[in-house]
Amino acid sequence: MARTPLLQLNEISLTFGGDPIFSDLDLVVHQGDRVALVGRNGSGKSTLMKVMAGLVEADHGDRILPPGQTVGYMEQDPDFSGFATLGDFATAQLGASDLWRVEAAAEGLKLRLDAEVSRASGGERRRAALARLLAEAPELMLLDEPTNHLDIQAIQWLEAELAQTRAGFVLISHDRAFLNALSRATLWVDRGKVRRNEKGFADFEAWREKIWDEEDQARHKLDRKIKSEGRWAVEGISARRKRNQGRVRALQDLRSERSAMIRRQGTAAMALEAGTQSGKKVIEARGIAKTFGDKTIIRPFDLRVLRGDRVAFVGPNGVGKTTLLKMLTGTLTPDEGTVTLGTTLEIAVFDQTRALLDPDATLWDSLTNDPQMGVSGRSDQVLVRGQPRHVVGYLKDFLFDERQARAPVRSLSGGEKARLLLARIMARESNLLVLDEPTNDLDVETLDLLQDILGDYPGTVLLVSHDRDFLDRVATTTVAMEGDGRATVYAGGWTDYLMQRKDSDNFGAEKPYSRKSGPKVDAEKPGLKKTGLSYTEQHRLKELPDVIARLEAEIAKLEDLMADPDLFTREPIKFQKATDALIERHAKLSDAEEEWMLLEDRMAS
Questions:
Q1: In the predicted model, what is the mean pLDDT of the chain?
Q2: Has residue 526 got a pLDDT over 60?
Q3: How many whole angstroms separate alpha carbon 271 and alpha carbon 286?
Q4: How far apart are CA 215 and CA 263, in angstroms?
Q5: pLDDT above 60: residue 492
Q6: Of 180, 260, 346, 449, which has the fewest Cβ atoms less than 10 A away?
Q7: Rounded to whole angstroms, how far apart are CA atoms 157 and 160?
Q8: DSSP SS3 for 93
Q9: How far apart are CA 393 and CA 381, in angstroms?
Q10: Which helix or strand (DSSP H or E) is residue 307 part of?
Q11: Is residue 522 over pLDDT 60?
């Protein structure tokens, strides 16, 4: 059965003062389509969406919107100028009979419609833009990063709302779980081309790798043909000059075709390097509490963070996750309790507000005028983990080109600002990373790389994120801040937290609480006995056997690899990396076994 087209682009070409962004683009979005629009940061996703919305006019081609069809667009940074409150913005395009739709969306998104625009956070503005779009109820919704700055509760509400809508929609998002749940087709913007796959985002990586493999094979065949024809031209052209001018022109065409092939953009060459190894105990918080006015941020709370832990902090926006991070790292003093930091800590911080970046400074100056990185003044070098690097060369590691080096930070996209901040952080040696919303705006490929880097990082990580997939892949412990000052520690990532929360018979009920002992919830989790150990320590004792088994398995694999007698001479770099990894795994195994024995003794005493 044929579906009704909602929007059609025919032979669209667009150039912004340089290479074409799109050439001869054809695209149709049908009724009921649920499309993920993906591509690298800077590939043109948002520009394409603006063309679809009719906000950017193409140099050539047609945008066709059938009569009676409406398109709604939610951009990354909506313009709130001229509106006093978020409600004024959300209801601006609606008649009186449709105002209930805004109120319904506001209720689901936990949006205060009377909040002043001048005081609204990024998350509140995003909620207002979503409420406006949902209330307008167009036949086709275009959503550019709708989950950025939203907490997980709001993301899940939006996911459920879009899952039941009859409207078609196109989504740009870095949130894998969100895209996996909603998309049924994928548009991939890559080097000026837009490809479509009639499967959702879950199939994207396999599809992308298949296309790249086909490209590599075609390029290889073309290279061989050019080489063969070039040999013929050198050896025989003089004897057959008149008869074979066509073949000479064909060779020139082949070379033109090869030079026109645009190379794929590589992944960022990001790397983290730990400085001096920290002590085994990184952070010890005992009975810490904090109140601002009549709002309780955290009731007396205990947490021990050991070297190598990856601790995630989750909860609604405004619940106090960043405040708790600041207390745990010593930049904010708790009202009660104590925080003891371990020895030889070297802390690097990724700030969700990007406040460390001066919008008027150039990318060059952002790296060379950073006292924390050991450089100041105008220089052409930046110190990268103790080694001097040319600024442009280091920026290229993070996928910036030479022209951007002298551009102001304000000209960057959200994803590019995130990469620049990562460049600053990764230039330093550290053993404690504090990452407050690092996943906002980053493309999927960079997120994958960041995840892998964090997996190999020998230091400790404290992480705030609303990206459920990223939390599952990175976190070993989750601290859930659930409002009213309650914070509970769970083993594992987001999915583990949900399972443990579901298993708790009395989850969400008010628990007896004393300012001396802290929330009773920590001592009464199912399956945990009252012992001389804190709740966190009991969970750690429970998970250590699995940690030890995993380390033993990794050691066995490395020893098998190094059993190859020719490895050193054949691949010396790989041999050295395997040797370093083996030493590191043995050290971690020794620490884990020692920690297990210590906790067992304390529980028995």
A1: 82
A2: no
A3: 34
A4: 10
A5: yes
A6: 260
A7: 5
A8: coil
A9: 9
A10: none
A11: no
Q: In terms of pLDDT, which residue wins out, 503 or 530?
A: 503
User: What distance in Å separates the CA atoms of residue 555 and residue 68, rounded to the nearest whole number?
Assistant: 65
Count of other CB atoms within 10 angstroms of residue 153: 16
Question: Rounded to the nearest 10 degrees, what angle do helices 444-456 and 414-426 cross at?
Answer: 20
pLDDT digits (tens, 9 = 90+) for 113-149: 999 999 888 788 989 999 999 999 999 999 999 998 8
Strand partners, 408: 362
Q: 36-90: per-residue pLDDT in tens?
A: 999 887 778 889 999 999 999 999 999 999 998 999 999 888 889 999 999 999 9
Q: Tell me, what's the pLDDT at 226? A: 61
User: What pLDDT was estimated at residue 247?
Assistant: 54
Q: What is the pLDDT of residue 152?
A: 92
Q: How far apart are CA 55 and CA 50, in angstroms?
A: 5
Name, in order, each residue with C-beta under 8 angstroms of 503's C-beta and a sequence gap of 6 or more. 526
Question: Which two structure tokens, joined as six digits, stand for 378?
Answer: 């105008």
Q: Would the pLDDT of 260 be above 60?
A: no
Closest CA to 469 of 486, 444, 500, 491: 444
Q: Which residues pair with 519 in a beta bridge?
A: 513
Q: Crossing angle of helices 535-562/572-604, nearest 10°?
A: 150
Q: CA end-to-end span of the chain, whole Å?
A: 72
**Measured CA angle at 474 (ends 149, 599), to 5 deg:** 125
Taking the CA atoms of residue 77, residue 78, residue 83 and residue 87 in that order, the dihedral angle to the nearest 10 degrees is -100
| Residue 319 and residue 330 in contact, taking contact as beta carbons nearer than 8 Å | no
Closest CA to 586 of 565, 558, 561: 558
State the pTM of this model.
0.70
Tokens 């012992």: give the residue: 531
Pairing outcome for strands 185-190 and 193-197 = antiparallel
Rg (the chain; Cα; Å) = 28
Alpha helices in 150-276 (DSSP H): 152-164, 176-182, 204-236, 245-260
377 CB neighbour count, 10 Å cutoff: 7
- What length does the chain have? 605
Q: Which of 430, 451, 457, 459 is nearest to 282 (CA)?
A: 459
Please classify residue 133 by burial: count the beta carbons closer than 10 Å to its beta carbon, then call 0-12 exposed, 13-18 middle and 19+ buried: buried
Question: Using an 8 Å Cβ cutoff, are 92 and 85 in contact?
Answer: no
Beta-bridge partner residues of 35: 170, 185
- What is the per-residue DSSP string for 531-542? -SS-HHHHHHHH
Alpha helices in 563-571 (DSSP H): 567-570
Q: Are 300 and 339 in contact (CB under 8 A)?
A: no
Query: In the prediction, which pLDDT does 395 show?
Result: 86
Q: Residue 185 phi/psi, 5° resolution? A: -150, 160
Query: Smallest Cα–Cα separation from 412: which of 371, 360, 350, 451?
Result: 360
CB 25 within 8 A of CB 62: no
Rounded CA separation 598/603 (Å)? 9
